[in-house]
Amino acid sequence: MLGSLRFRLPALFLLGILLSGLVASLIAIRFFQSYTRTHAIDELRAESVGIVRLYARQAGASIIKVPSLESAIGGDRIYFVPAFPGARLLQPLPNLPASTVDISQLKARGSTTLDLNVSHRHYLAVAKPLYLADQLFGAVVVAKPVSQLRSRWVTLIERLGIAFGGGVIVAGLLGVYLSRRITEPLLALSAAADEIAYGNYAVEVPEPRGGDEISHLSARFGDMAAKLAESEQLSRNFLMSVSHELRTPLTAIRGHVAALREGVIHDAVMQEASLAVIGEEAMRLERLVGDVLDLAKLDANRFTVLQEEVDMEQLCERVFAAFGDVARRRAIDYRADVSAHPVIVTDGDRVLQIISNLLSNAFRWTPEGGRIELSLSAANGSVSVVVSDTGPGITDEELDRIFRPFWSRDGGGTGLGLAIARELALALGGRIEVRSQLGIGSRFELVLPAEGGSEV
Q: How many domains is the chain partitioned into structurally?
């Protein structure tokens, strides 16, 4: 409990409020102390000036109403410091020792501030020189008890304490609210992560709220969970597809081998046909295993690309001819359009594999009586091989998936052809671009760099 974010966040938040409030309070008290002292000194200085002027005007009178003066200035104490022995006022004031005030320094400054201790009480005082008949007669000292200043500080501290306590309560409630708002989605994400760790990819991820970092994390976590679920489904589809693809040729091979071994087939022509079927199915197995190995090498960046001069026209003619029989059997309008004769430096076998995969995909989705076209062109320092068909087309959502390994629109096949084609194109320094319209067809374009080659 003490180590959880639910406790630590509001605790740290409240601690920060406490420390900042304490520092602010100390600074405020210090400033207030300085202000009250300065203000008190200004008041005492003004009072001392008025009293000195009053004594100077009434120097010849016999009565100076000191009590009225004291009441007029709020009960402050008034003292007299003689400048020479025997100097006394007609209306005597309580005398302070001559050493209390440096008369010569007071004469030069005009006034001075004192901290007095009289009768075990502490006073803040201001001394002002008193001149009678242009002669320095002494100094009038106006004092105020320091306890009055402290009472103001105590009042301020009490009010600050009330405000500080209220602020702490509000900050604590706000910290608890923010802590819950932050930790609740995190706890939900943690629970979802536990479910995913146990293999449950269909876990419900909390909906992101707002646009903060936690909402972004929740959204990305949801995307991750969806991709993991999709990856798991693709893996299952791959195992099922590969099992089916392996079982079919193996069943055919085993059947023909058993027939030949048992002597069921006596005719030499039939035996030759059975051996041909065995060879074709073995090649089919070899291609399937090769596709899986190629994809693994490409993913692990352990794929080797050869560098050789490749006549793209001859290569396209070769791969075009390989699908001629399939086109005739299905009555597909199969065409080739060569408008350039480039020779480039690349890996010819891998380029042949890419184009073969693109044509195989086109023949798979083009219905009987449809049209497939293979075209070759060169422009702007690149060579372009286009395979277009009149298949059902591809949706925008599926355009992002068709190049994923093991993904198939209809669940058939291994879903490796286009994935390998794209990875090979990237390994050769090129790319594959796709444009498609539903109900019209698709266009796959292989673009390869022509640097290092030539135009024949």
A: 3
CATH number, position 64: 3.30.450.20
Instruction: Please say if the pLDDT value at position 439 is more than 80.
Output: yes
Indicate if 114 and 242 belong to the same structural domain: no
pLDDT of residue 67: 43
Are both 217 and 119 inside the same structural domain? no
> What is the predicted pLDDT for the residue at 302?
65
> What's the pLDDT tens digit per position in 346-392?
988 889 989 998 999 999 899 999 999 999 999 888 999 999 999 99
Rounded-to-integer distance, Cα 60 and Cα 49, Å: 19
Q: Are residues 348 and 294 in the same domain?
A: no
**In a domain? residue 174:** no
Beta bridge partners of 142: 78, 126
pLDDT in tens, 66-115: 444 444 444 467 777 777 776 766 566 777 777 778 777 777 778 888 88
Pair 324, 431 in one domain = yes
Positive or negative, the Cα torsion across 252, 253, 257, 260? Answer: positive
For the purposes of burial, counting CB atoms within 10 Å of the CB of 139, is it exposed (0-12), middle (13-18) or buried (19 or more)? buried
d(CA 449, CA 443): 20
Give this prediction's pTM.
0.48
Residue 187 lies in a domain: no
HSE on the CB side for 179, CA within 13 Å? Answer: 17
CATH number, position 329: 3.30.565.10
- pLDDT tens profile 110-128: 888 888 887 778 888 888 8
- Is 176 part of a structural domain of the chain? no
pLDDT over threshold 80, residue 60: no
Among 37, 302, 46, 9, which Cα is nearest to 153's? 37
The two tokens of residue 331 are 């009555």
Given a cut of 50, whether residue 64 has pLDDT beyond it is no
Residue 19 shares a structural domain with residue 139: yes
Domain that holds residue 39: 5-152
Q: Cα separation of 174 and 213, whole Å?
A: 19
